[in-house]
Design a protein that fits this description.
The chain is α/β, with parallel strands linked by helices. Helix content is 25%, strand content 28%. Among the domains are: 3-273, no CATH class; 289-365, Immunoglobulin-like, CATH 2.60.40.4270; 391-490, Rossmann fold, CATH 3.40.50. Strands 1, 2, 3, 4, 5, 6, 7, 8, 9, 10, 11 and 12 form a twelve-stranded mixed sheet that branches. Strands 14-13-16-15 form a four-stranded mixed sheet, with no helix packed on it.
Length: 686
């Protein structure tokens, strides 16, 4: 081969290699990230940059799995003329058509994101056009290309708080039919797309025509990327990617060319947060709330805030919840509807909200008149009718119970996370002992209702139950700034916390008596609180099949002489009972077939002469926990009921006991009006 032809071939090969650059047009960051292999310094032997320095693989850019190096291509190493080239292109990521410049992109949690990778291929088009006008091209416009192969691999990786849809929908624009997708796959939070140059390109003339026909910017879009519910507001989340490509070609049977390319961030769309050469895109989620207005007979009943794209029950606004069901004389509440004249409810706590909304109470007229107080139709007048203590949510219910319990105020309160029953499970005997109601808080903010109640009570001492993951240090600090004395019960777990509370109970109570209940469910511990209050004794917790080292050590160190286990072996096993008996010889068990019968059995043992029964949910812990202190200061039992009925065991106990008054703690969503009326009937028929 003469020198002139060799020069021509080099130029033609250079053009062919430029075409391979077109393959890096996907949503990505820097070239590669997977194998960690970096080509040696002499990989591009004989090639120099414009400034005369040798071509060298850039620092920090790693090889990508799936792209062969020349040493892996047998034909390339079979001898003859060959060249290795390295080239770079600019790339970018867009989200919903926006690219970052000088600010982090803001979006909403409910948004569907179209993530687009953009590659600027105008330099390649310009180079091939310049080459077309050279003497070499004019005289050799039909120079053949054979054995041309070109592949590129692109990846985009999302942060954990974002996710691709289960079924990927991608769109490739700007390349016409010059390139085709050969594979798309999703692995966890990474999507990989492989593109190849179309088959059948046999001459430089055809290559020029095809390459120059594509747009200056090629784009690949992955549609409907979602933001997960656990994503936090005003927090930066960055997506990254990688592109790697190669091209191998022969002009005749001998000259060969191998080109590798990588892609770096286009300066025009540089990530405002990352601010480096990786192709990346950072976004943050701004909280957007909507208001649901609940109307009852043309009167506003309650307003509830909800995050856009989520439901009231499922959003992160822990101080907002569905209202308690309203009541209306002569009617049964059926639910809420989005249309005022609707007959069937269509709005619940699970309904997704995307805008401000007004919903209306739907009523059904009773066939038999009902008392204004919601009493029984068979006994319309009952001297000692039940009383319901409830609020619009668990926070307000706790406040209402506090107001009823301490109308003239008190010096102390117990503060606990409204969503964690374990933090306050064993606090009832302590709360009664010191005269302190249990009030609820959010993790990082005290609700205004709770703040107002602490102020009304005139409390100067606050006992916080749980660690800073339940009630943050900032809450404790704010209470101290207000002049409150703050004590925190913060064990390593619920069993250790129970021991810490128990030590305070023993300081002014029984030294040799203890009650033991399950730390894995709330009902038995709540029921046994009646006995704990009577005996002025602490409640310790156990796992079903493990007394736990902390509880075992406590009953030993405290030299306990008498223990009562709450519940049957379905909550605390016979094996645990044996472990207790080995330490405390005088050990007994109070339990029934289920949580309801257990509460009746404990009531009979603890306060058999009580004329008041405190009825609350055996299914929803929040109302039940604030019922314990109320029952304790009134020397009454806690009796658990289903939301829609009074269990047989509780009905039987009510009939046979001395109870002639009842207080129901909790709203109509946890203890239905029908259940309330059953309790009323049971008392009326005595």
């Amino acid at each position: 081969m003469n020198k002139k032809i060799s020069s021509k071939i080099k130029k033609i090969l250079s053009v062919a290699l430029c075409s391979a650059l077109l393959l890096s047009f996907t949503p990505t960051s820097i070239f590669a990230k997977d194998s960690g292999f970096v080509p040696p310094d002499n990989a591009f032997r004989g090639q120099v940059n414009n400034d005369g320095t040798p071509v060298k693989w850039p620092d920090g850019v790693k090889w990508i799995d799936g792209i062969p190096w020349t040493d892996e291509i047998t034909d390339f190493n079979a001898g003859g003329f060959g060249m290795n080239l390295l080239m770079k292109l600019n790339g970018d990521i867009e989200v919903n058509g926006e690219t970052e410049k000088d600010a982090v992109y803001e979006t909403k949690k409910s948004a569907k994101l179209n993530v687009t990778g953009v590659l600027d291929v105008s330099p390649i088009k310009k180079q091939i056009d310049e080459l077309k006008n050279t003497d070499t091209y004019k005289n050799n416009d039909n120079i053949p290309l054979t054995a041309t192969q070109s592949t590129f691999i692109t990846r985009i990786t999302l942060p954990d708080e974002l996710s691709f849809p289960e079924v990927l929908e991608t769109e490739f624009t700007g390349a016409g039919d010059v390139f085709k997708v050969t594979d798309t796959k999703k692995e966890g939070n990474t999507v990989t797309v492989i593109f190849k140059l179309k088959d059948g390109i046999s001459s430089f003339e055809q290559l020029h025509r095809d390459i120059t026909s594509v747009d200056d910017k090629l784009k690949v879009t992955v549609k409907n990327v979602e933001i997960k519910k656990e994503a936090k507001y005003d927090t930066n989340y960055t997506m990254h990617g990688s592109v790697g490509g190669y091209m191998y070609s022969r002009i005749t049977t001998e000259p060969k060319l191998y080109m590798a390319f990588y892609t770096m961030q286009d300066p025009a769309g540089k990530d405002a947060f990352q601010n480096n050469e990786e192709i990346s895109f950072t976004l943050k989620i701004k909280q957007v709330n909507h208001t649901v207005t609940f109307m009852n007979d043309d009167k506003e009943y309650k307003k509830v805030n909800v995050e856009e794209g989520l439901s009231i029950d499922e959003d992160s606004l822990t101080d907002q919840s569905m209202p308690t069901n309203p009541t209306k004389s002569g009617y049964t509440f059926k639910g809420w509807a989005t249309k005022k004249d609707a007959k069937t409810p269509d709005f619940t706590g699970k309904t997704v909200v995307n805008n401000d909304l007004t919903v209306y109470a739907i009523w059904e007229k009773n066939s038999t008149p009902v008392n204004p107080g919601g009493g029984s139709t068979t006994n319309p007048i009952v001297p000692n009718k039940p009383e319901r203590i409830d609020g619009n949510d668990r926070i307000e219910t706790a406040v209402k119970v506090s107001q009823k319990s301490y109308p003239n105020g008190t010096k102390a309160v117990i503060l606990a996370n409204k969503d964690k029953f374990s933090d306050v499970l064993t606090a009832v005997p302590f709360s009664v002992q010191i005269g302190a109601p249990i009030l609820f808080t959010n993790t990082d903010s005290i609700p205004v209702e709770t703040k107002n109640e602490i102020k009304r009570l005139g409390a100067t001492q606050v006992y916080i139950n749980g660690g800073t993951s339940s009630v943050t240090q900032s809450i404790e600090d704010s209470l101290k700034k207000e002049g409150k004395s703050v004590t925190r019960f913060n064990g390593v777990d619920r069993y250790d916390t129970a021991k810490l509370i128990g030590e305070r109970v023993r300081a002014n109570g029984s030294k040799d008596v203890v009650e033991i209940a399950s730390g894995e469910t709330f009902p038995d511990a709540l029921s046994i609180s009646s006995l704990a209050v009577k005996e002025n004794a602490p409640i310790l917790l156990s796992k079903k099949n493990d007394l736990t080292p902390v509880t075992k050590k406590a009953i030993s160190d405290w030299k306990i002489e008498k223990a009562t286990i709450a519940g049957q072996t379905n909550t605390i096993s016979a094996m645990v009972e044996k472990d207790v008996t080995n330490v405390i010889k005088k050990t007994s068990r109070l339990g029934g077939a289920d949580r309801y019968e257990t509460s009746a059995i404990i009531a009979k043992a603890a306060v058999p002469d009580s004329t008041l029964g405190v009825y609350t949910s055996g299914e929803v812990f929040a109302d039940a926990l604030v019922a314990g202190p109320y029952a304790g200061i009134n020397k009454a039992p806690v009796l658990l009921v289903n939301k829609d009925r009074v269990p047989t065991s509780i009905a039987k106990y009510t009939k046979e006991s001395k109870i002639n008054r009842a207080v129901v703690i909790g709203g109509t969503s946890t203890v239905y009006d029908s259940t309330f009326n059953q309790i009323k009937d049971l008392i009326a028929k005595k």
